Structure formats: C-alpha cells, structure tokens
Amino acid sequence: MDDLRLRLAFLTDWIPDDVRVWAPPEAWWLALLAASLLALLVVGMLLKAVLGALFRGKRQVTSDWEPELREDLLTLPLPNSKTAASVYHVPARLRLIVVAPAGKGVTLDGASVDRLLERVVPGLGKLAHHDRPRIVLWPSPISELGFAGSFHRATETGGSRDLPSLWVMLAGRARGGGEAVFLGLALYTDEPTTLGRRNLNAGEWLEVLRL
Questions:
Q1: Given this model, what pLDDT does residue 15 score?
Q2: Same domain, 60 and 86
C-alpha cells in the first residue's frame, strides 16, 4: 500500500499540506475521481447541447421548404365512380399523385404527366382520369430518400401510425420509359389496413398496384 501511495503521490502533491492532512490519500483519490467524472459529464452535456443546436438548425432549413409542399388529404374529395384499382390487393382509390424529376435533365409539365404515369405503370394514367386525384409537381429533391421523407411528412393523415388506416402512402423512384422520376401516391382504401407508408424501388410499382 505504501508503494502505491508513493506511485500516486503526484495526484495529491499539489494539495497544500495543511489541507491534505484532513484525509488519507485514498480519500483524496476518490474525490479526484468523482471530480473528473463530474467534469466529463459537464463536457458531455455541453457537446450534446452544441450538436443538438446544429442539427436543429439543419432540420429547420428542411421544414422551411416543406410547408409549401404539404397536402391536406382530408380536403380531397372521393370519386363517385367504382373502385378501379387495388394496392397490395386491397381495393383503393387514387387521391393524390406527386411527381418530381430524378435528374437535372428531366423536365415535367402538366401536359406530360398522364403519359409519364402510363409509362411508369401501365394503366396508371387511365386510373388518374378515372379517379381524378390531385396531381402535384415537385422540384427535384436531393435524393430518393429525401423525396420519400418529404412526401411522407407532407401527407399527414391525422391518425396514429400504429392503428389501421384507410390511407396507404407509396413513395420512391419510378421509371417511365427512359425517364427516371420520383413518384408519390396517396390511396384511400375501401377498408382499414395496416399497410401504412411504404417506400418502393423502380421495380416494385407493378407488383404493388393492380389496375
């Protein structure tokens, strides 16, 4: 023990003699350890606060862009015609279509959307005429995940994601002929499901939608 005290004497040598005699070296070691842990805790909290402020700033930039894209699904009227499509084999009506270019060389306009939808999923353009959904053109997103995240945030249904819902949201990259685009669909099903929100790749649209 005396040898250990000699080896660790540098930890307490800086303490004035008239103070150091108040407690044995072991007690001072414990006090120094507690002070070190407290200092690490304070530093960690400061770092967390700084990083949190930085990330909150980044999210705020995103939220400033997205309010312009938000859609109130409850204001979209349902068609009077029969259900003409299904999503994952559940009858559904198409209520919202969001399309965004997937590259700088792709330009979209209202006149070309129907033809583009027909190339992405044969029959989707005709379904759009049948169900008369709201069609929205978005600017090109940063990435595929960026588009899907923005679409899901912009289409709140007002219900809990853990409970069955009449809404099914599909988002992802799609390919119409030689053009790659990002596509988001909001479908209103005939019965509540737990399908919720799904991100699709370019090859899954034909498997998920039945027209």
A1: 66
A2: no
Strand partners for 172: 183, 200
For the beta carbon of residue 63, count every other beta carbon within 10 angstroms: 9
Q: Which helix (H) or strand (E) element contains residue 94? A: strand 90-101
Q: Which residue has the higher pLDDT, 48 or 67?
A: 48
* Segment 26-49 mean pLDDT: 76
Which residues are bridge partners to 170 per DSSP? Answer: 185, 198
Distance CA 210, CA 187 (A): 12
Average pLDDT over residues 3-21: 61
Q: Is the CB of residue 207 less than 8 Å from the CB of residue 142?
A: no
Q: Cα(20)–Cα(30) distance, rounded to whole angstroms?
A: 13
Say yes or no: 151 and 59 in one domain. Answer: no
Task: Identify whether the C-beta of residue 92 lies closer than 8 Å to the C-beta of residue 192.
Answer: no
pLDDT of residue 134: 92
| Alpha-carbon separation of residue 167 from 34, 62, 128, 143, 163 (angstroms) | 55, 25, 17, 25, 11
Residue ranges of alpha helices (H) inside the chain are 2-7, 17-20, 25-65, 110-120, 124-131, 144-154, 205-208
Residue 16: give the domain boundaries.
2-64
Cα–Cα dist 173/89, whole Å: 21
Domain count, the chain: 2
| Nearest-angstrom CA–CA distance, 66 and 63 | 5
